[in-house]
Amino acid sequence: MMQSVVKSIGAEAINKEEPLLILFDTSATESLKKHAVIQEFSEEAINEIKVGDTLRFDDQEYKITQVGPVANQYLKEMGHVSIVFKEIGTEDQLANALYVEPFELPVIKEGTTITYG
């Protein structure tokens, strides 16, 4: 299990019409920060995420239903992962995404704890 804390939420990071959150660590560029949730991990080691694991935003829990082929690599390299809150499409799958259920955006704020695992 690993944890991060939300440090900032970009002005364009949350869109109720698009059930997606884009997360980066604090090394994200200023232009990325406008569209992303910036997280800071409490540990150096990033554990591998697998289907069936849980993802929590404070006390809001989600089940991981699919892990994109480069999601773990990007999470380790730059704290980057996209969280998708909708059914997995056959044509528009994101390689860096975690697909989760339920299909509902979480309520997040600066200071929200994100728990992977």
UniProtKB/TrEMBL annotation:
<protein>
    <submittedName>
        <fullName>PTS glucitol/sorbitol transporter subunit IIA</fullName>
    </submittedName>
</protein>
<dbReference type="InterPro" id="IPR036665">
    <property type="entry name" value="PTS_IIA_glucitol/sorbitol_sf"/>
</dbReference>
<dbReference type="GO" id="GO:0008982">
    <property type="term" value="F:protein-N(PI)-phosphohistidine-sugar phosphotransferase activity"/>
</dbReference>
<dbReference type="Pfam" id="PF03829">
    <property type="entry name" value="PTSIIA_gutA"/>
</dbReference>
<dbReference type="GO" id="GO:0005737">
    <property type="term" value="C:cytoplasm"/>
</dbReference>
<dbReference type="GO" id="GO:0009401">
    <property type="term" value="P:phosphoenolpyruvate-dependent sugar phosphotransferase system"/>
</dbReference>
<dbReference type="GO" id="GO:0016301">
    <property type="term" value="F:kinase activity"/>
</dbReference>
<dbReference type="InterPro" id="IPR004716">
    <property type="entry name" value="PTS_IIA_glucitol/sorbitol-sp"/>
</dbReference>
